[in-house]
Amino acid sequence: MTRVRHFLSDESGTGPIEFVFVFPLIFLIFTISFESSMFMARHVMFDRAVDETVRQIRLGNYRNFSHQDLKERICSEGMMVNSVATCMNNMRIWMQPINTGTFAMVAPPRNCVDRVQDLNLAEPPANEFAYGTDNDIMLMRICLKERPMFPTTAISVGMSPEPDGTYALLVNSVFVNEPG
After folding, report:
1. Where do the structural domains in the chain lie, given as residue ranges?
2. By CB count within 10 A, which of 4, 71, 120, 138 is most buried?
């Protein structure tokens, strides 16, 4: 009985037990914070790249741009991406004019890039990407799919994952096609 009482009153070795219980929680909070910060930084840089590109379009510096040129300019505008080619493959651009008579707009598609069916063609169909004419008000929606770094992203970012495990970053922009 004395041995049992002595064993139960012995407090040596209790430090590692605290560490085992507390460290995973602290590390989880750190990874959640880091992942949220990285997604926010990516989204801000993505938004900035789109704004810079749309500004150049508005000023008339990109007169004869193609769908691929637009993707390349957005991806090379200082975004936090692995490579421009990967960024271009994970991006979908939807651009349509807004009818100024009724201001009725076609709703942009909800899906981003479908990697299984490879919908990301070099020049998308006219119902997804139209250049518009002079003085048209254009609505552009750009979607970029990003892979998370940690499996806790669903908790940290608060976004719903796509079926392929990526998260969609969306940016909208409106501009006027200047005459000329």
Report:
1. 10-176
2. 71
